[in-house]
Amino acid sequence: MQVTFLGTNGWYDSPTGNTVSALITTRDYDIILDAGNGISKADRYISQDKPVFLFISHFHLDHTEGLHTLVKFRFRKGLTICGQPGTAEDLAGLVREPYTVPLDKVPFAVTVTELPDGTHEIPFKVTSLPLVHPVPCRGFRFEIDEKVVSYCTDTGICDNAITLARGADLLITECGLKPGQKSPDWPHLNPEDAIHIAKRANAKRLALMHFGAEVYKTLDERRHLKRQFERECPGLVVSEDDMTIEV
After folding, report:
1. Do the bridges between strand 79-83 and strand 110-114 make them parallel or antiparallel, or are there none, so unpaired?
2. What is the pLDDT of residue 46?
3. Spatial distance between the Cα atoms of 46 and 96, rounded to a whole number of angstroms
4. How many domains, in total, are found in the chain?
């Protein structure tokens, strides 16, 4: 299994990268996490011959603006878009004329699946739980190919993030804030918070993404986090666009 970070910025594109999207490559499926502008690069890394699943954590534009680019793809075995209850209605309002090509007119079959709280077989095993953010936002836990990958973006520290990350081979979290920074009115994680979640959950490895574009203005500022925190969090991944890691 591989994870490729397609877009690693939060809020907006900048010289440090595109807005947030990641790809989990498994034996039988390609799983895309969020649809920021990074999703437009997915065809560099997939054959488009496997079923593709897209999980949307929430509908802030840095997680959905890349839906505009879906029409470029040719997913020969279709696309299943998964999200929290209400996702179908939100998609219908966002991905439509006159703004972009509607989902029923893209050149492949699209299915929308709404996931209530809990664990589902779709056909692989995925758990969906709410996180802490100003709008409804979900984290996901994937159990597939004898591995566990957890994805918790746009959240403060919460019990559900720890539950989703429990024993994961890889925990992917946001890192919108710099060390020591707090944002109580608009919950996001700093590196210490992300490490706290990983340790509480006994996750085997932590990957940081969704770096606030207005906070981390250079890649060197991100890279410093690895030097600063790797002793505390061995194997820490500080993601950059187009980075691929093995799980």
Report:
1. parallel
2. 97
3. 26
4. 1
